[in-house]
Each structure stands twice: as structure tokens, then as C-alpha cells.
Write a structure and sequence with these properties.
Elements lengths: L12 H18 L12 H18 L4 H7 L5 H28 L8 H12 L2 H22 L5 H28 L5 H25 L1 H6 L4 H19 L15 H4 L6 H16 L1
Helix pairs in contact: 1-4, 2-4, 4-7, 5-6, 6-7, 6-8, 6-10, 7-10, 7-12, 8-10, 10-12
Length: about 280
């Protein structure tokens, strides 16, 4: 049976270009992390942060084979290219977490129940389901990384802020993917998908609040406060991702290439974008 190919109304060229050019920005940001600084954190805080980072490192380390296989059915090589580059950025986050763990003398995990559940959910259905789960994971994690970005440990602070600049754009990338994926879905179907996503998001935020609560407290964030803010982040993304709002956002990264990739360092502009999203979610 010949597979029906839906006419493309949006191209992911802007994302393929963004991810490719982002390699240069990563090089500039990575050297700013002070890996040679000694940690002065209390032993209990080191243990809490190490246990938390172990789980995030495991979650970010996947190769995305299932996601890429589903994506290829769209017959859009530009989208495939953008997706491969996105996965590479996630793996870079894993490498940063692994380096932070090595600094604490902690080993990487090979398995964890939360990661196994996430993998099973991702494999249950199609591309939109998997992208939705990425959107949930990344919006929920925003407040966690923002808290780590206030850590008194300079390396943890640097790693968190480095990852946060990527996550702001990754959320927009997931929203773009879902807007395209739900373009021809009736409103009733989009409402049902959004309601199901909300159920998963509440569960995910609860698990993170409980499972990573000690690490959050070590950075001055109460788990209950995290829970509320995490769901606000997700709530802001839902109307856009599932086409439940009349607002039509500009597709693509949050800033033009001149901001992200100028030869002169302008990383403060990216940090400002992340801070703006966080403040809006809290409002």
C-alpha cells in the first residue's frame, strides 16, 4: 500500500541551520565552566546532587533510534537532519553531567526505574507521543536546572546554566514539531491529546519533585515550589503545541542567528531569554 504523504506546510530548515550553527556557541559556553574549581559543598549536598545528576545523565544519554525511525516515515530529510542534531545536543548534556559526576567521584548509572518507564512510554505509540513526552520532560526540567544554576558550586552552576540555554530552544523545537503533527487533527482530538499529556506531566513533575527533592533543597528550592512552577512551564506550552490557542507564534528559535552566533560573545542574550521564560511561568 502506498503511504499517503501529507503536503508540507512548514519546513524545518531553520532548525537544521540553528542546530548546526549552535556547535560554535557550545564551544564558547563549554570553556566557561570552571572544571578546575574545588567543590566546597557539604557532603550531604554532594551526595544529593550526584544522585540526581546520575538520573539526568542516564536520561539524556540515549541515541534516539526509535524517535529517528518514526521520524523517517514523514519523508522529510530536513526534519530528519534537525532531529539528529537535536539528539546530539541531548547527548552533550549527558556528557556534561557525566563530567560533573566524575568530579564528585560518582559513577554513571546503567539503569533506573524512571528512565525505564520513560522509554516504555516513548515506544508505546507514534512520533507525536514521543515528541510530547520530550516536551513534558523538558518543560518540567526547566525549573530544576534553574535551581541548579543558583548552586554555590561553580561547576554545577555552570553546567546547569549551559544546559538551560539549550532547553529554552528545545522546548520551542518540540512545540514546532507538535504544531506540524497536529495540523490536520480535529479540535476534539487535540483536546484529548492535551488532556492525556497533562496527566503525564502531573505525574512526571511529582516524580521529579520526590526523586530529586534533596538536590533541589541543596540549591534552595522547595520541591512543592518546583512542582507548581514546573507545571506552569508545561501549561504555557500546551495551547501552542496542541493548537488550542488562536495565537500563531513565530516558528523557530527564540532569537535570530545574529544573537546566537555572533563572533562576539553574546551569551547574555540567551540567558536573558531563559530567564524571561522562567519569570513568565512564575507569573
Amino acid at each position: 500500500m502506498q503511504q499517503h504523504r501529507r503536503p508540507q506546510t512548514y519546513t524545518f530548515d531553520v532548525w537544521a541551520t540553528y542546530f548546526e550553527a549552535n556547535l560554535e556557541r557550545h564551544e564558547r559556553l563549554d570553556v566557561l565552566i570552571p572544571w578546575d574549581r574545588i567543590s566546597l559543598l557539604p557532603g550531604a549536598d554532594v551526595i544529593a546532587l550526584a544522585r540526581s545528576l546520575q538520573k539526568f545523565e542516564l536520561g539524556e544519554s540515549g541515541e534516539g533510534a526509535g524517535l529517528r525511525s518514526k521520524a523517517r516515515k514523514r519523508h522529510d530529510p530536513v526534519y530528519d537532519d534537525a532531529l539528529v542534531r537535536f539528539i546530539a545536543e541531548e547527548q552533550k548534556h549527558s556528557a556534561l553531567f557525566a563530567a560533573a559526576l566524575a568530579r564528585f567521584g560518582a559513577e554513571r548509572l546503567t539503569s533506573d526505574w524512571t528512565d525505564r518507564v520513560f522509554v516504555v512510554l516513548r515506544r508505546l505509540m507514534g512520533l507525536r507521543t514521543e515528541v510530547t513526552l520530550f516536551l513534558i520532560a523538558e518543560t518540567v526540567a526547566m525549573e530544576y536546572f534553574e535551581a541548579l544554576g543558583r548552586s554555590s558550586d561553580p561547576v554545577i552552576r555552570g553546567v546547569a546554566r549551559r544546559v538551560l540555554t539549550d532547553e529554552v530552544e528545545h522546548i520551542r523545537f518540540q512545540i514546532d514539531q507538535l504544531r506540524v503533527g497536529f495540523e490536520h487533527t480535529p479540535r476534539a482530538g487535540r483536546l484529548f491529546a492535551a488532556a492525556a499529556a497533562w496527566m503525564v506531566a502531573v505525574g512526571a513533575a511529582t516524580v521529579v519533585a520526590v526523586d530529586h527533592g534533596a538536590a533541589m533543597r541543596a540549591c534552595g528550592l522547595r520541591p512543592l515550589t518546583f512542582w507548581h512552577r514546573a507545571l506552569r512551564h508545561f501549561g504555557r506550552a500546551v495551547p501552542l503545541a496542541f493548537r488550542l490557542s488562536r495565537e500563531t507564534p513565530t516558528f523557530g528559535p527564540s532569537a535570530p542567528p545574529s544573537v546566537f552566533f555572533s563572533p562576539a560573545p553574546k551569551e547574555h542574550a540567551v540567558t536573558t531569554a531563559a530567564a524571561g521564560m522562567l519569570e513568565q511561568a512564575r507569573g
